[in-house]
C-alpha cells in the first residue's frame, strides 16, 4: 500500500483530483508500517506479538503517536545493529527533514477522521478540525520554505503558467522523498538487526522499495522472524548486512 502510494504521488498529474486516493493509500500504508515496526519491537522485548487491544485501542489510527514511539524505540535499540553507522545515518536524515512532521500530521488527520470530512459536511455535522487538504497544504508550504530551488520555481510559475506541471511534479516528488526517507529508516533498522528479530524483514522492505516491485510481503517475513526469535536464537547467520557495508 505504501509503495503504491509513494509511486502514485510521484506520478500524480492532477493533485487536486488525486489527493484523496493518495492520502488513503499513504495513511494506511504508513499506519501498517508503523504497527509492524512497533510489533517487532514488542516481539524483541517479550517474544510475543502485541495484543490486538493495544493495536486497536491504544495505537488506533494515531500516526503521530506511533511514529514518535517507533523512532524512540529505534534510537534506544541502535546498539545491537550490525552496522550502527547506517542506522544512525537514517535516523539523522529523518530528524533533519522539516517536511516529515507536518506530512505525518496530514496523514494522521486523514486517517483518524478527515477521510469523512466531506461526508460529515453533507450530513450537516461538520468536523471541528480543518480539512485534510489544509494539513497537506501546510506540509507543502514547509517544503517551499526549506527548498530554495523549489520556491524559485514556484515564484517563476506565478508569471509563467506553463511551468505549473513541472512545479507540481517536483513538489510531489519532494513530499514523496519524505515518505521514502522514513521507509528507508525502518528498512535499514531491520536490515541491520536493530530490532533483534532477524534480517529477512529488512530485506523484504528494501526489495519492495524498488520502483518496479510492488506488493509488500512484510507480514510473512515478520511471522518468520517471530518464529526464529521464539526458538531462542537470533540466527546470527542472518546478521550480515545485505548491502552498503562500511569500512571503518
Account of the protein in words:
The chain has 12 helices and no strands. With 248 residues, it is mainly α. The protein has one domain. Residues 210-222 and 232-248 have low confidence and may be disordered.
List the main descriptive attributes of the protein structure presented here:
248 residues; mainly alpha; 12 helices; globular; disordered C terminus
| Overall structural domain count | 1
State which percent range the strand residues make up. under 5%
Shape: globular
Q: What is the string of SSEs from the N terminus onward?
A: HHHHHHHHHHHH
- Rounded to the nearest angstrom, the distance between the terminal CA atoms is 37 Å
Low-confidence region ranges:
210-222, 232-248
Strand segment tally: 0
Round the mean pLDDT to the nearest integer and report it.
Answer: 80
Question: Helix amount, in percent?
Answer: 55-70%
Radius of gyration: 19 Å
> How would you characterize the largest beta sheet?
none
Q: Structural class, please?
A: mainly alpha
Helix segment count? 12
Short description:
This protein is mainly alpha-helical and 248 residues long. It has helices at residues 2-11, 15-46, 52-59, 63-76, 84-95, 100-112, 117-122, 132-146, 148-157, 164-191, 200-208, 218-230. Residues 210-222 and 232-248 have low confidence and may be disordered.
Strand and helix map with partners:
Blueprint: H1 2-11, H2 15-46, H3 52-59, H4 63-76, H5 84-95, H6 100-112, H7 117-122, H8 132-146, H9 148-157, H10 164-191, H11 200-208, H12 218-230
Helix pairs in contact: 1-2, 1-10, 2-4, 2-6, 2-10, 2-12, 5-10, 6-8, 8-9, 9-10, 10-11, 11-12
Amino acid at each position: 500500500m505504501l509503495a503504491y502510494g509513494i509511486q502514485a504521488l510521484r506520478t500524480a498529474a492532477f493533485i487536486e483530483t488525486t489527493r484523496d486516493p493518495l492520502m488513503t493509500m499513504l495513511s494506511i500504508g504508513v499506519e501498517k508500517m508503523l504497527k509492524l515496526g512497533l510489533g517487532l519491537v514488542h516481539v524483541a522485548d517479550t517474544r510475543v506479538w502485541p495484543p490486538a487491544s493495544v493495536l486497536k485501542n491504544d495505537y488506533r489510527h494515531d500516526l503521530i503517536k506511533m511514529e514518535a514511539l517507533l523512532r524512540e524505540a529505534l534510537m534506544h535499540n541502535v546498539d545491537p545493529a550490525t552496522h550502527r553507522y547506517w542506522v544512525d545515518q537514517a535516523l539523522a536524515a529523518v530528524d533533519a527533514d522539516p517536511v516529515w512532521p507536518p506530512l505525518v500530521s496530514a496523514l494522521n488527520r486523514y486517517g483518524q477522521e478527515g477521510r469523512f470530512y466531506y461526508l460529515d459536511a453533507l450530513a450537516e455535522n461538520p468536523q471541528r478540525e480543518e480539512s485534510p487538504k489544509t494539513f497537506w497544504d501546510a506540509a507543502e508550504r514547509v517544503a517551499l520554505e526549506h527548498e530554495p530551488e523549489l520556491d524559485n520555481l514556484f515564484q517563476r510559475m506565478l508569471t509563467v503558467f506553463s511551468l505549473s506541471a513541472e512545479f507540481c511534479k517536483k513538489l510531489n516528488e519532494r513530499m514523496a522523498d519524505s515518505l521514502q526517507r522514513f521507509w528507508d529508516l525502518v528498512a535499514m533498522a531491520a536490515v541491520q538487526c536493530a530490532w533483534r528479530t532477524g534480517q529477512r524483514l529488512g530485506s523484504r522492505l528494501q526489495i519492495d522499495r524498488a520502483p518496479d516491485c510492488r506488493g509488500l510481503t512484510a507480514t510473512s517475513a515478520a511471522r518468520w522472524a517471530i518464529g526464529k526469535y521464539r526458538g531462542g536464537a537470533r540466527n546470527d547467520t542472518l546478521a550480515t548486512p545485505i548491502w552498503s557495508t562500511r569500512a571503518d
